[in-house]
Structures are given as C-alpha cells and as structure tokens.
Design a protein that fits this description.
about 350 residues; alpha/beta; 10-stranded mixed β-sheet; about 30% helix; about 15% strand
Length: about 350
Amino acid sequence: MAGTTVSPTPLLKDELDIVIPTIRNLDFLEMWRPFFEQYHLIIVQDGDPSKTIRVPEGFDYELYNRNDINKILGPKASCISFKDSACRCFGYMVSKKKYIYTIDDDCFVAKNPSGKDINALEQHIKNLLTPSTPFFFNTLYDPYREGADFVRGYPFSLREGAPTAVSHGLWLNIPDYDAPTQLVKPLERNTRYVDAVLTIPKGTLFPMCGMNLAFNRELIGPAMYFGLMGDGQPIGRYDDMWAGWCMKVICDHLGYGVKTGLPYIWHSKASNPFVNLKKEYKGIYWQEELIPFFQSVTLSKDCTTVQKCYIEISKQVKAKLGKVDEYFNKLADAMVTWIEAWDEQNSSGGKSADATNGPAK
C-alpha cells in the first residue's frame, strides 16, 4: 500500500526514468530522496538555456536545455514546446527505459490518512504492473489490489484484464482546476483522500493531468506528445489533456488500459488564475469541439501500432479541426514531426543524446 517503507532495491530500478520539466533549482527533490534517489532522472530545462539549474547532490541525472534539444533534433525540434511544461515530452523521447514517471517541481510528498509518507512512484509501478479492466466495470474498483477481487457477475472471460499503459495519479491540497474555477473558488483545497484505483472504461475520455503521471513507454510512448503550447502558440495548459485524449483513443483501439486514482502527491502552490485564463481562454471554447472530435475518431484495422494510430489521428485533426482554427493544421504537422523524431531517436541508428550528466550510479 501507499505509505509503506521504501524497499532497499526499488521496483524497476533499471527500467524506469523520472522526467521533470523545470525552470528552477530542484530543491524539491530533497523530500523525494528516499523514493527517487536510486532512479535515473531526465531533467528538461525550459526557458533560458544559459541559466544553471541546481540539482541536489547524489542524484543520477541527465539535463537537457533548449540548446541540447535543438542540437539533438535539428529542424524537428520545432515540435517541442518552449516556455511551457509541455517540453517534458522530449524526455519521453530520449529515454531508453520501458517506463516513465513524470512529476512537476511543485509536487511534494503527500501523507496518507494514517500520517505515513506516500511513495507515489511505488504505487504507480503497482498500477502499471497489474492489468486494467477497460471492457467491463468492476464495482470493487481494482480487482488486482490486495483485499479486492472481481465481484459476482463479472465475466470470467474478461478477468485476465488488459495491459496497463497509463497510471494517472491525483493531488491533495491545490486541485487541478481551470482558471474560471480557480477564480470562483480561490480558497478551495482538496483534502479528500480516496483509497481507490479505477480503470477508465473503454470509450470514455478524461482530462489527463501531467503532474503525477506514469506510463509504459514501450506500449504507448509515441502517443504521449504534449502538443504545441507556450511560446508562439495561441494556447497553453492543454498539453497534457491533448496527450490524454490522443492516448486514450489509441489505447481503446489497441486494447490497453488506463488507470486513475492512487497515488496522491501534495500539490504545493496554485498558479496565477489570470495568467492561466490568458493561456486557456481559446482552449475553453475549442474543447467543446475537441471532445466530440475525439469521441468520433475511428481508427482502421491497418492502425496496428501506436505510430500508425497517431499519424491517422493527425490526418483527422487536419481534416476536421483545421476548420476550427489554423492552429490545428500546425499542430497536426507537429504531430507527424514528433513521430518522425521519435522513430529517429528510438532506432538503432538514432543520434546519441548529448546532455549535462549528473553523478553516475
């Protein structure tokens, strides 16, 4: 369970990278040291590349700034957002591990109701290593958890479940609200700890948040593109949700599962709602067309890989959302560029990634 002491040899120690986007010194890692220190970190520095980001001693990391991204991807670096946490997906691309955990630098260790520190990474790993149940809902939630099982009436033919592609964690303290809700409820805090993990049913979309998120990179990695956001773009704060909608459509098509619920982190500070409104305002009304679009996307039987699925979605984005705004034509092109860059970096002949490296293991 979340809150148990961390084991001497962490699960998936050599199979998981922790990806952190940041513009500041990573002092927050000190509180995560008992849980993160034995893992490899990929730090994606946003903003001014000449700024030095301080990483606490003892962590094994590689750090990429904008100059590194441009050097590694060349012209294809145009698909990686600048001055937006969407830049984190570059870390997904250059990782060589099977699993990814990504966390924001304002997310601290939370405590469970008994007062124990929650090892968020351990719970994400449990979520990813057990199957999901996207095809039939289990009323006791995750049947693979200790103390739970499939309830009476659950088809035996579906009890093997589906491979889990994504584990979506939640947040105590500052909830992940949009700007209008922040403005209406400036003092609202999430204090409810719900001890549950649910599989999001097939055919159901959800707003994915990237601040406490883990996924199986081998199963779904190429779909985890956080879009074009931030500098030079008409929209922000929709990066993780865009990735989530694309990812969920592809998981539904390929037969993978997505879980949400535990683990919780402590989200320490609220972002400025007025700045957020400026970033979000187009997205708030665009999403009324985006959701029906994703609900109606169909992928052919020829779409047998994540890459093929993603390219097919990009074509439909251009055909159907290009009419909503020219931005979506640009985004559709960037989606193709992302897949090309992903395949280059993940082929045997891909360029080696140059980065600033921290202490080796």
